[in-house]
Structures are given as structure tokens and as C-alpha cells.
Amino acid sequence: MCSRARPFLAAILLQFGYAGLAVISKFALNKGMSPHVLVVYRHAVATVVIAPFAIVLDRKARPKMTLSTFFKISLLALLEPTIDQNLFYTGMKYTSATFTFAMSNVLPAFVFLMAWLLRIERVKIRSLHSQAKIMGTVVTVGGAMLMTLVKGPTIDFPWTKVSDHQQSAATSTMEHPIEGAILIAVGCFCWAAFVILQAITLKSYPTELSLTALICLMGTIEGTVVALVIEKGNPSVWSIHFDYSLLACLYGGVICSGLGYYIQGVIMKKKGPVFVTAFSPLSMVIVTIMGSFLLAEIMCLGRIIGAIVIVLGLYSVLWGKSKDETPSTPGISEAELSVDLHHQQQMAKMSSGVGSLNEDSIDV
Fold this sequence. Notes:
Number of helices: 14
Largest sheet: 2 strands, antiparallel
Low-confidence stretches: 162-172, 327-341, 354-364
Number of domains: 1
Oligomer: single chain
Strand order of the largest sheet: 1-2
Number of strands: 2
């Protein structure tokens, strides 16, 4: 029972880590930190922290690096650490932390569609659980569109009644919701491709720590090139102070990039890529609560309804996924299997003993 619960607990802890990063990163971006520089520093920290563990712990199990594996790692670093996170942080700067993570809930839908097309995910159109996965995917995308296009009346909470200056600052972050939503959606598509490619790469390079360290290293290099091009002629953006910008780099590097990629890989080897991303609504709920309290983010009825629709659609996908995981020998417990195996071994010993007695009697 404990073994079965580990993937669920790990996935839940992963979403708590992502939720904490959303609030910390939003503070840093509001203070003027460049999202492109944040991506570089985050993965540089992750590389420094994870690489020593990968070198020591994977020294005997690490497979030989091939040209195909190197290409996959370079593509992984381009998809998630470079493209996705640059779009993700830029979209967050245009909108809010709550809106960003609500839009990110289209990630499981993208992962499911890609896994279906690549035949990683089993889908039988006539079965109820496969229909639930398909309908859940459609409902999830519809909820994301509802959340983006429909605003509705503002909902005031006692803790969001702040000064006019803070209210105008919070409102100004939602001046570009459409542009931010497009950036976040494209980033989620790249993130979904990253998850699928990570699952494929782990089959030929099954050391999660080493793969994580290499992804972060390549992500640092590729992200630096992108940041130098975008922030050309503005060297002041690379300065880091002892404030939320430093905390965002350290937290994002250690928790979300280092441990996050590693834990994601471990879960993926047992449960598959769809299971890993099916817990995204949990981070949205956490970010909504924390963003409302700490960032005084404005809540609108349309976004709340859209978020609820997203959650319903995603857990329809999760329910259908759970029905796919049927045991290989239904109705037989592990204890019964061990007893049956022991009985077969005893019968084999008895038959071999009888055979040796018969041979001795023939010799006599």
C-alpha cells in the first residue's frame, strides 16, 4: 500500500513546489527582474546542485553517451528550460500567477494527445474510460478558453482590499491577458513535448540524476544564448541582489528544476507521462489561495468558473487513466502467488528426487 501511494505523494509534493515558485517568481518579476535572466540563473543553480550527486551516485549505472542521446538531451533543454520557461515567465509578467497556472492546466491535455498519437497511451474508443479521457481533454481546453476570454464580475475578498496604489499595480498586470495566454499556451505545448521526450529518453538513458544534470547544463547554455540576444545592450539585468530575485533563482533551481525533473522522471518510469501531469490542478488551487493572500490578485467569476471546468475535465482524464492500470493477474493476491510459487518449487524438488531414486534402482 505504501509502495502504491509513493507516486501519488511525489506528484502532490511536486505541485506544491511549483506553486511556491509561482508566487516567488511573480514577486521577482514585479520588482523588474528579466524573465530570461531568471531562466538562466535558475538552471545554473540546478546544475551546480544536482551534478555532484549525479557524478557520484550514477558512476556505475550511467550508460554510454551516444550521438542520439546527446541530441535528445539538447532538444529536451531547448523545449522546457529554454523555450517553455521563457514564454512561461513572460506570460506571467503580462498576467498574474493565478492566471498563469490556471492556463497551464492545458498541459495534461497536450500530453495526453501526444501520447495518444505516439501510441504511448492506450485508447479504445468504445471503452468508457477511454471516452472519459477524450472528453476530459476537450473539456480542459474549453475551460482554458473560457478562463481566457470571459472575465465576469470581480469577486472581492476581505484580504484583497488594499490601497489604491496596490490595487492599480495588481490590475496593471492583467493588461495583456490575450498575449499572455498565447505565450503560456505555446509554452505548455513545449512542456508537453518535453514530458513525452523525457519518457522516451529514459528508456535508453535510465539514470534520472544524470539526465537531470545534463538537461539543466544544456538549458543553462541555450538559455544564456537566448537571454544575450533578447537583453542585448542591457547588462544591468544580469545583476542579482539579496531579495526575491535571488530567492527565485535558488528556489526554482533546487526545487523545481533539480528535484522537479528528477522526481518527474522517477514517477514517469512507473506511471507514465500522463499520470505525471494529471495533478496540475492542485498547483492551481494552491497558487490561487497564495496569490489572493500574498499578491492581492483580483479574482473574477469567469476565471473561477473556467478553473472549475478545467479541474473537472482533468480529473475525468485521471479517472480514465486509473482504469487502464489493471493488474496483470486480477483476483489473486501477492500472498497467494507466493504460496503457489513455493508449492511449485516443492513439487519440482519431489519430482527430481523421485527421478534420481528411479535411476539408482535401475543401476542396481
